[in-house]
Amino acid sequence: MKDGRGAQRSRTIEPVERLTGHAVVGTRSLGSVTRCSLDDGREVVAKSGDTQRSGAGPSTRVAAEAAGLRWLAAAEAVAVPAVLGADDGWLVTEAVASGSSSREAAEGFGRSLAAMHAAGAPAFGSPPPGGPADAWIGDAPMRNEAHDGPWLDWYVEQRVLPYARLAVDRGAMSGDQAARIESAVGRLDPGPDEPPARLHGDLWSGNVLWGPEGAVVIDPAAHGGHRETDLAMLAVFGLPHLETVLAAYDEAVPLAAGWRDRVGLHQLFPLLVHAALFGGGYADAAVRTVT
């Protein structure tokens, strides 16, 4: 009888071999994903699309992430793992080699992130080309629909209010807290108008890996949005050399005056997602960012 790890290994091997055309000669579990060694010497990462807890079928998650990786790669700016294969249930990408953060790598990341954002998007909320409207951020559903703007209207309608309601529905936030956020957020200054940027969309520090040649971003929730949202998300849990990243970004493509005053507004979205998924003190933190 196979144990759980053996069953998982067997379940992973078939789709990896089918999608890459190469035999798997070794596997290693990395939590929610599996790292596989192929018979041609390459290392790949396989991710199942059936881990979501509710909502659309598994093909939605795989299709959204694959389209997001390809869209970010098309900017030829920030490094992302190449998509080697995808179907309704599985995504296979290049594995990221181990490296370490450094000031030089952080400067390069800041410049490349500015270039990726500058590559643009058709509209706020637009999905990557070929990607589904029903996407995901972590284990939370995320709807991507093009919006005429302005940015704050889209952000409140499509990012703030849906996740505040989801947090309330899941018992992670009180109705009073949600009402305070809804009352406050529309009155905040969003800064000057900017065109839609090409966002990673879930750019917390765990999705920034440091390879031998610099930063590589993984697990995108890509869409058209405001570039300050990606930058604010980097600061939610901290990032090595973050100030160096920001300075290099600002030097490459200057940020609008007062951008630091708007960090809380842009962090509201990821904090609400965390409140809906994990509860804890995230609801209080979300309220504090805007009140």
UniProtKB/TrEMBL annotation:
Q: Which Pfam families match?
A: Fructosamin_kin
Domain of life, per lineage: Bacteria
> Which segments does the entry list as coiled coil?
none
Per its UniProt record, what InterPro entries does this chain match? Fructo-/Ketosamine-3-kinase, Kinase-like_dom_sf
List the keywords (alphabetical).
Kinase, Transferase
Query: Which molecular function GO terms apply here?
Result: kinase activity
Q: What name does the UniProt record give this protein? A: Fructosamine kinase family protein
Species annotation = Actinomycetospora atypica
The upper taxonomy is:
Bacteria, Bacillati, Actinomycetota, Actinomycetes, Pseudonocardiales
